[in-house]
């Protein structure tokens, strides 16, 4: 497995946000994680990327525990994230935001400035602007490009379409197959179930800090998702 | 024409204050840390340069060049071993730690070098002056000012045109997200403090060549530096130079009226700027 969590728990002070989460992602796979607000999806992303430290052995990358590593060390192993809310650096231009994504780790691979400007042509026009002067959708493109610049093995996208206009969401989803073709495995955290199922091979549904459903995106039924999402009997 | 002379002297004195302040500004800009030992570290570096001159027989310039990597290492260690552990949401612990460091440095220097005031011998440059027609300026104040400009241009170049500078700005914006870029914020902080100590060494060189110093003068240098940074607006190095110049000019005019008013006039100028522009002259857009 490229990435695995085993009985992953996470706490904010006294509050427990994850209760033993098991997920597994194979190389090159596209996995969707769905679930209502507050289900623990972002907490899971923060635990994988080391923003929230967890016990050793709970997160494994290629079979090795990375639970005790810093965010920077985890990123250098090839796990990049598009964080919730995009979090571009306000003091950096669009191009600098992209460059900094590949500044510390640049594995060989398809992604560089030109490739990202080809993926999202609007960014080439805006490259001298401050990152935060862009529209929400363009900022999301920068955040995706920034994560790709290191040529990661695994791209985690937290709330890839939340709050964006439909045309922009279409453009961003259109980029995902090209990112996969570049070799990266992708995790999309998504509230729009239809979008998630259309792009993913497999889907995990979370509720109240637990995984309530694991299924192939192709054969999962509406009833199964409804039950896993809202916790009601199907 | 006496006022013109006073103005020029004041502007040049501002260069010294800008040198005192640049390191403080750099560290504050990147990690929101006010190092209360900054002035004492300048004095420490001045003694280090003095040792190079008296023990090793080096020229002050070479002694400062030798002191720079040592001071960089000291800054790096200070950040790694001490300050990184106390940086956090609460701003009080780093203030207390650097205050303690200030007291310890003063006492350590007193123990090592006594309370006698010392000076770094600058040779022929000491009294040299240039006649510019309308005014006559000292070579040393002129060199100080020029060095301040060079330091600011160099730091800005580093900040805006290098990968390290990009990492500085990103870490300053958002250390957690910088971590997602593979950047270790604590390493960036250690490099920044090391760099600030290189600037401190340059400030110390001019401090020690232009006037007498003793182990107790650090806190006053910190105040001038602090006022220059605040007047300029946090995070802007050119603003810091402007702040230094304002304090310098106020001091020389105060002294021209009555020598006892020199220091007071600088502080009054600081207060006036704060009343008119509470965020300083060139505040950063993001903050
Ligand atoms: N920084 C935090 N401090 C305390 N509680 C938090 C914090 N972030 C999230 N939580 C709580 O943890 C739970 C999971 O949140 P989150 O992982 O953000 O959910 P999701 O991303 O699925 O919407 C929620 O109950 C939320 O209120
Ligand atoms: Mg979330």
Sum up the structure in keywords.
heterodimer, A: 234 residues, alpha/beta, Rossmann fold, 4-stranded antiparallel beta sheet, 9 helices, 34% helix, B: 287 residues, ABC transporter involved in vitamin B12 uptake, BtuC, two-stranded antiparallel ribbon, 11 helices, 2 strands
What does this molecule look like?
The complex is a heterodimer of chains A (234) and B (287). Chain A has nine helices and ten strands. Chain A has 234 residues and is α/β, with parallel strands linked by helices. In chain A, β7, α7 (166-181) and β8 form a beta-alpha-beta unit. In chain A, α3 (94-101) packs parallel to α6 and α6 (136-148) packs parallel to α7. Chain A is globular, with a radius of gyration of 17 Å. Chain A starts with a strand and ends with a helix. Chain B is an all-alpha fold. A two-stranded antiparallel ribbon of chain B has the order 1-2. The interface between A and B is medium-sized, with 26 and 18 residues.
Strand and helix layout:
The complex is a heterodimer of chains A (234) and B (287).
Chain A: E1 3-12, E2 15-25, E3 30-35, H1 41-48, E4 59-61, E5 64-65, H2 71-76, E6 79-82, H3 94-101, H4 113-119, H5 121-125, H6 136-148, E7 154-158, H7 166-181, E8 185-189, H8 193-199, E9 202-207, E10 210-216, H9 222-230
Parallel strand pairs in A: 3-8, 3-9, 6-7, 7-8
Antiparallel strand pairs in A: 1-2, 1-4, 4-5, 9-10
Helix pairs in contact in A: 3-6, 6-7
Chain B: H1 2-31, H2 38-54, H3 60-86, H4 92-113, E1 129-131, E2 136-138, H5 139-161, H6 163-173, H7 175-180, H8 185-210, H9 218-232, H10 237-257, H11 262-276
Antiparallel strand pairs in B: 1-2
Helix pairs in contact in B: 1-5, 1-8, 1-9, 1-10, 2-3, 2-4, 2-8, 2-9, 3-8, 5-6, 5-8, 6-8, 9-10, 9-11, 10-11
Bound molecules: adenosine-5'-diphosphate and magnesium ion.
The site of adenosine-5'-diphosphate (ADP) has 11 residues of chain A, from strand 2 and helix 1.
The SSE string of chain B, one letter per element, is: HHHHEEHHHHHHH
- CATH domain class of chain B: Mainly Alpha
> What's the story with the biggest beta sheet of chain A?
6 strands, mixed
Annotated CATH topology of chain B: ABC transporter involved in vitamin B12 uptake, BtuC
Q: What share of the residues of chain B lie within helices?
A: over 70%
Distance between the termini of chain B: 43 Å
- Averaged pLDDT of chain B, please? 93
Count of individual domains of chain B: 1
Number of DSSP helical runs of chain A? 9
CATH architecture group name of chain B: Orthogonal Bundle
